[in-house]
Fold each of these.
Amino acid sequence: QVPLLESGGGSVQAGGSLRLSCEASKYTSRHNCVAWFRQVPGKEREGVAAIVTGGRPTFYADSVKGRFTISQDKSTVYLQMDSLKPEDTAMYYCAADVGPCPLSSDGIVADFADWGQGTQVTVSS
């Protein structure tokens, strides 16, 4: 088993960009789901983007549509974050599981078999 490993977090000013990476070789060669979640203290974890590996349809939370882009290149899934806002500040987690992406009317469901340890994103005003 290959663990998920996030990188790319850091501090950026509002309006700037960051690119997060998730090494997820166990899941990227099949029609599986790899997603990005974020969480701030005192709030529930929020699904921000997901991608179906191989066929690669994508899903986004309304709060990040038009600003974030999830993509896959071989064994790595990326989250390109543009036009960052202070409210994007959070710990970002990569998650993955076999099969389709778990979606509901509320967004991406936090029902994944594997989780990374997180990478911090801080956006200053």
Note: The longest strand covers residues 90-97.
Amino acid sequence: QVQLVESGGGLVQAGDSLRVSCVVSGPTFSPYNMGWFRQAPGKEREFVAAISARRFYTNYADSVKGRFTISRDNAKNTVHLQMNSLTPEDTAVYYCAADARGTGYYASRSPTQYDYWGQGTQVTVSS
């Protein structure tokens, strides 16, 4: 049973920084390719960032590139998303996702690539 648990969300002001994290547990011995997605009210779920299980290839949405940084600690089965220079447009529920089918070198932008999802953590940025 693969489980993903996000944490670190909260209420911040525009210009502030926030770090959300995701801890993964499951039956496999290898780390997963991981992604972060977000969904705001009235909008479709959108890709934010991804990182591969091996070599740590990364992929970012244009809207967050240069502001957000995805990282991982395989020893702790944890992936992080450091969010800087936050704006109200970043307000959303942030979800982490795990790719159970990849070979370890994928950092996909497509939600269909991911097999497991966390419950999400709310990030609210006030103006």
Note: The chain has a mean pLDDT of 95.
Amino acid sequence: QVHLVESGGGLVQAGGSLRLSCVISGVIFSGHTMGWFRQAPGKERQFVASISWSSGSTYYADSVKGRFTISRDNAKNTVFLQMNSLKPEDAAVYYCAVLGPTNYWGQGTQVTISS
């Protein structure tokens, strides 16, 4: 069983920065990919960024490229999402996920942007 706990969300002004963390407990295999997704009210959950647990290869949604950075600390079983130059449209609940044969999700952390 894999358990994920996100933290780091909050209220920030447009143009500001936040760093989200996701601590993962349970067995993680090299084939797993870690991802961040977000869901705004009335909208579908959308992909934000992902990172390979083994190689560290990263992928980003076009809407966040150049502003967000995903990283991991394998020793601490933690995935991070550094979010810079935040825009009002970035406001959402952000979810961490372990993607593999079975997907696991965290409970989400709220990011609110004031303009």
Note: The longest strand covers residues 18-25.
Amino acid sequence: QGRLVESGGGLVQAGGSLRLSCAASGLSFSSSTMAWFRQAPGKEREFVVTMRRIGNNIYYADYGDSVKGRFAMSREGAKSTVYLQMNNLKPEDTAVYYCAADRGQGTARYRSSDYDYWGQGTQVTVSS
């Protein structure tokens, strides 16, 4: 039974920065594909970034077009934690941000249905 716990959300002005954390337990962290999604009220869940293992201790991140150049995902294996560094935030980034993980099968990519475990979500609000 995998469990993901998120933290770091809050209120920030446009142009500011925020870092989200997602601590994982109960899964094979080194082989699991991890991802961030976001969801604004009345809208569908949107892909933000996914990171998968492509070799021993080698990981590759794919970003959604709306966040390329502004957001960065990183991984800290010793703490079984992933992060989402968000820079140059815009009001359009306002949403609940969710951390997700698969079971290590290597096929998860850009769809919500690819993932097996989800965090509780953390609110990010960007004022203009």
Note: The longest strand covers residues 46-55.
